[in-house]
Amino acid sequence: MRPNQLLSSRSRLVRVASLGAISLGLSLLMVSVSMATVGPNGPVHHPRYGWMRQVAPASGALLFSAPAFTEIAPGNGGNPFLTGNPETFSTPALGDLDNDGDFDLVAGEEMSGFLYFENTGDNANPSYTQQSGGANPFDGLSAGKFVSSLSTGKSAPALVDIDNDGDLDLLSGREDGQFLLFENVGDASNPSFVEAASLDNPLDGEDNGSRSTPAFGDLDGDGDFDLVAGDLSGALFFYDNTGTAAAAVFTLVSGVSSPFDGIDVGDHSKPALVDLDNDGDLDLVVGEDTGVFFYYENTGDVNAAAFSAVVGASNPFDGFDAVSKSAPAFADLDNATGVDMVSGNTNGDYYYYENADPLPVELTSFSAVSNGSQVTLSWTTASETNNAGFEIQQRVGRRFEVVGWVEGAGTSNEARTYSFSTSRAVPGRQAFRLRQVDFDGAFAFSSTREVSVALGGAFHMGDVFPNPFNPEASFTLTVAQTQNVTVAVYDMQGRMITLLHSGSLEGEQPYAFRMNGGDWASGKYIIRAVGERFESSRIVTLLK
Description:
The protein is mostly beta strands. Helix content is 0%, strand content 46%.
């Protein structure tokens, strides 16, 4: 089993202006935002587009983000999208296609064409007008096959700057499970799309089986867009971009190496990536055949995504129903408190989900400081409403685990200061966040804070947690110098039960190991780590 490296040294997104809006299966920021990332071949600039991250403003309150959506059906007041569309199987994507600072909409449909709805309002008061003929930059394009002079097959567009030239291109899924790329040969203000040649389509030849539905986002923190695609079966396919932001190369990743492994929503999966909990990484929302929405929180981080299902009242889309074959897309359409959602459906309608984004706790500061192996978190709130308290979470491997709890002030209009200390911090870069919980069970996350913890010797082997355990437990190991290390579990008679790792570990990097005793007998076991310059062991107890 390969260990999970907890943190990467790659640079993060650089924020130089206020948050604009998040959209698509990638994210877009308004034209007043300039973003920069560091990719494998140096800086990659995105004057109009950024990754799908909602981070705290550079100054002022560091607000918890807990989205609360209101469903506005087609034809009802407050829904800016047209009703009575003759085309069926609407599959929307949002992006600023004319560089006027607001979000326009392009939609796939039953007969494989692309509908274009220009936002003739503005970024605070959207109003959509369908354009046709020469006013539709997608006029005449098709993602389908031609049978008896008719184009058939359902188009499913995603907007992405695939060649890093500063304008939006379009990648479409199609009925046969393949992907077509339409390159923007115009510019950011005057788009003009042509179907790319097979050699220029980085997804040429890829086949998801039937009804592919792509979405883009940077899931591994390397500064380029990766891709997740749904299909008729309800599963999700992950394509890692092993190329660059300007020259994408997509590699299908399957099994446990895929962060979407095991996710299946039934039929007609349609994914969207968006940072819903304001923790700096991309979460997942999936539409499906019956019209509901599945929500999966990213419990990993920007470098290593890991998705966990959120159900019931904790799912901000719980109880919503877009009738059939929901197809979500995200953007801050009203320039208000957070990202809104629009969904297509079988009938060709567009359901609008406005984000009221209530913020019961206003967080004005949050810091993490280390002293030896101890880390102290400090934070201040300006006001609180219905606040039961704060769950302290620390990243262990690809997931966050609970390490403590601090009671809140309930309802208060006065500034409050809190702190929490933990000695469960292993050497290396460590990450913490707060999960603010209301008395009614509603919750929201803070942004993440990272801190360096020094390594005091040749190695550090953390405590096994939990201990006793059943059936899973985890621990961390950090070595001062790069070396070959063997980590294994033995019974009390010295017989190896399982080999967790055999190979090189990089110095000064914490690694997380997880073991599963589901097939073991209850009793005591020894975890032994042997390196070139050290040897250490821990005794654990399995209680079934």
